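sorry for the late reply, my laptop died twice this morning and i had to redo everyting from scratch. anyway the thing you sent over, i finally got around to it. pasting the sequence first so we're on the same page, its 458 residues, then the predicted structure underneath. double check i copied it right bc i was rushing
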Amino acid sequence: MNVHAPPFFVPPRPAAPTDELGWYRFLIAVRTNALQIWPKAAYEQDVLVGSAFGRTRLLINAPDLIHRVLVENTANYCRTAATIRILRPIVGAGLLLSEGEDWRHQRRTIAPALAPRVVPMLARHVALAAEETIAQITAVAAHKPVDILATVQFLALEIAARSMFSLEMRQYGPALRGLITRFAGSLGRPYFLDLMLPAAIPTLRDFARMRFRSQWVALMDEIIEARLRAPPGEKPRDLFDMLLAARDPETGAAFSRAQLRDQMATMIVAGHETTALTLFWSLYLLASSPAEQERAAEEVRTIDLGPDTAADALAKLPYTKAVVNEALRLYPPAFALARMAIAADRIGDVAIPRGALVMMSPWVLHRHLRLWKDPDAFNPSRFLGESPLAHRFAYMPFGAGPRVCVGAQLALTEACLVLAMMVQRFHVTLADVTPVLPVAVIVTQPDHAAPFRLSPRS
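ok and here's the structure:
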């Protein structure tokens, strides 16, 4: 018996390079698995300074310095041309990519519609959709392993459709998934010219993105038209009703039709894919950690998670929430934030020249040796208690500062409820021993759809 063995499951991860990558290897890693662009030193140092394509590149890991970029001097740091070029075809001019007064107007208008008071409405949609999906996979699981990744992707899209539009996805789901998969597999991958050219100068790939944009907009408009044909209700039924009625508290302005479409597109893309991945990684970690899985199962054993009580049940799920938070720490969907310095700045002892690429990586930050004990281990208990974090900006799966994800609370609600319902119903194990490795291009996803065995709990 090895008395020095770590008590917690340590999931496999891609090996970090020993030294900083040259430009060619950097470009290959960005297109295939961006988790491998940072060398081992990144997980130990506060700031890593290098160069890429003729300009300074920094990776910032010190929470105080991140605060400088994202909060204290946030007006000096804008999104990069590559980020805008790649994401605009699918999220348009919505909250994610807007800047300046346009962003402030959108944020002021959308924030009340996603406030905590919306949680009971969302929780009911989540519980109803999850009950149906669990019933479907119960029949499959009796005969063969289940593709959990596909299951949670379908479920998250169904929840997004119901909570946003009060529509089921039988009609639109395949087309939505098809377009999102096509975008992620090809058009969403950065190419050399994406990283080199200003966003205003199109490339051949941008013309393909424009064609995608026209198809995507047509589908979103069709879904919105279907929703508008529904008779009005006495009170808001979904997020679409909330956003349709939303007004900027300072100007009284409503969203235009195009703005409404881009907000809904942003929430579908950013919301359903990231939540699905959070659920996959949570179930993978519990399947690999029997003791933690049984602790979560015991927590939910006697809790009523039905549609009418789901919202009230959330307060009774501290360990389930800790599992979700730990999965988000180990596998943050948004693995990196990139900003460009508009003017020269100084963070700590580091001078930042105008035009420098400033990166903050939740993937690196959440596994940094100076910020976490046993950073590679799965230990949900680190999120129990009143002050689990060394620093507020040591953990940022939803970003941080004024541009923190406005739907973070709703995403956590969905992930916690679905995970609780799955663990309450099934004992979850992996069907084979093939290691599951994270791969990051747009989001942090598994390198293959691992099969799971789901055994009903008595």
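The chain has a mean pLDDT of 90.
thats about all i looked at so far, will dig more tmrw
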